[in-house]
Amino acid sequence: MLLMHFRNGCTWKASVHFRFIFSPHRQSLFRPSKTSVSSLRLNRKIVLVAAALVTGLMTSVTGAMADQCGGASWYGPGFHGKKTASGERFNENAMTAAHKTLPLGTVVKVTNQRTGKSIKVTINDRGPFAKGRIIDLSKAAAAKLGTKNAGVGKVCVAKL
User: Fold this and answer.
1) Short-list 70, 66, 78, 84, CA closest to 131
2) Which of 2, 8, 85, 127 has its CA 20 to 30 A from that of 94?
């Protein structure tokens, strides 16, 4: 049994035995009989297919992005009313954010590492362009998260 726990709280189980790959000297579900060479080839193929399936399932469970942690800044007054990368007008009072790589329109959960408080924002712009920062929050999002007064805060970003 393969049991994996992910940082985002997901748990994934698979009833696949890989002891044949890692320890061919022990009894295993995929251990072939000593007399059958074709059985050995078949069982190796089964193990490889099972490993490929598990790898594919793990990718689908974790998603394209694991949690990112780093600095968060906020922006607003100088950009209010201007076009964002998504083409919509920036509203400093909306729950939006800028991210370098996430697809525009993606909803993410941003958690303040210091307080544990979290908010949901929609990615509608590109940035931040300062070293060590992973997300730029709108003025309203930063205020709700509790990072507005400090200007920068440590956060974790998880894709929803």
Assistant:
1) 70
2) 8
Global model pTM greater than 0.85: no
What tokens appear for 72 in the block?
């968060």
In Å, what is the CA distance from 19 to each residue of 26, 37, 91, 152, 156? 7, 19, 56, 48, 36
Q: Which of 46, 58, 54, 52 is nearest to 20 (CA)?
A: 46
Residue ranges of domains in the chain = 2-62, 68-159
Q: 68-159 belongs to which homologous superfamily?
A: RlpA-like domain (2.40.40.10)
pLDDT greater at residue 111 or residue 57: 111
> In the predicted model, is pLDDT for residue 2 greater than 70?
no
**Cα separations in angstroms, 43 against 13, 35, 46, 115:** 22, 13, 5, 51
Cβ contacts of residue 52 below 8 Å, gap of 6+? Answer: none
pLDDT by residue (tens digit) across 89-104? 999 999 999 999 999 9
